[in-house]
Amino acid sequence: MEQINDLALKNFREYLRIPSVHPNVNYNDCVKFLKQLAEDIDLPIEVIRVKPTKPVVLITWKGERPDLPSILLNSHMDVVPVFEDKWKYKPFAADIDNGKIYARGSQDMKSIGIQYLEAIRRLKIKGNICKRNVHVCFVPDEEIGGEEGMKLFVQSEEFKKLNVGVSFDESYASRTNEFVVFYDERVCRQFSIHCKGASGHGSFLLENTPGEKITYILNKFYEFRDSQRELLKSNIHIERGQVTTINCTRISGGVQDNVIPCEMTISFDCRVPSSNLETFEKMMNQWCKDAGEDCDIEYHQKNYPASQTKLDDSNIYWKAFERVSMQMGFKLKPEICPGTTDSRYLRQIGIPAFGFSPINNTVPLLHAHNEFLRVETFLKGIDVYCSVIYELANIVENNY
Ligand SMILES: [Zn+2]
């Protein structure tokens, strides 16, 4: 046991030492490392290039019933930049101090990629064979939106051939004993509102000016913003993913100080829970109308809700996941992801997708200085995946 734990830890640290950090990530060393690891566990590997410099690495543990929908275990290879002078340890050295592994990617999410594979190694050693194919997938570019990563991969023929029934990807570390599970994400809306109106000398009190319209709109958006902040603060049961966030990100217009311009523009970044989207959209359209004529919305990002992954008896994968959590005595805490992850690309094409990181009792340090993961938490996570993979890859009750 000690030996196999040491091996897992060694592989984890080796992976952390590859600086697959933005901007302009070179993924070659990740691919090379994963090829060696797959060979060591005796699993077939395929490298799919969705773009010449953007590899998707796919490692497969074949099941007895490849006709059944498969299990996809996804992680991203890239990590966000570091401010090295703010770190106690070198961010790509994977030093261990007091039982903690310090490195960029230790929580987000190189740990999980290794845990998937080390779990399969253990299941294989014990002689387990599963019914369904299990695909362990490593994608590029999640941290910059996945446009040349998962988004392209899900559209490829190679992906369709996998016949994916359910996917797992990241959530985030939880401070409590529970594990956070994402089943949905907020919808991102970014837009500019162009307000046109009367133009003239800066000494007049004209009516119908762009300035008045912008003021009205800004006030409405920020009144609503206040209500959402209040909601989040006053109710401990409400999570960040359940409220709408609004931020004014740009205001522009005008030519010189003594001229009232004929147009001013105001831009917002809004993240809206999918259940509130329709109401929100109606409300903001009304604000623009009430602000006066000629207030037009120009969208830069107009995302639509992906289908939420169901957490009820109709979802056989959720039932199995819950069974495992009961057997192992851990608690799952379903949440709507406040940001975005690659899971949305799977949900958009109708595949149930869980965001899940087996990291509890840990300060969430994704994208932060001195990101670390306890060795103990890392090793426990492998046990969690052993059970999750075994349970889910053996579901035969229907083809979902
Ligand atoms: Zn991540």
TrEMBL record:
Its cofactor is Zn(2+). Binds 2 Zn(2+) ions per subunit. Its EC number is 3.5.1.14. Pfam families: M20_dimer, Peptidase_M20. GO terms for molecular function: aminoacylase activity; metal ion binding. PROSITE patterns: ARGE_DAPE_CPG2_1 (PS00758), ARGE_DAPE_CPG2_2 (PS00759). The active site is at residues 78, 142. Zn(2+) 1 binds at residues 76, 108, 170. Keywords: Cytoplasm, Hydrolase, Metal-binding, Zinc. It comes from the Eukaryota. This is N-acyl-aliphatic-L-amino acid amidohydrolase. It comes from Cryptolaemus montrouzieri.
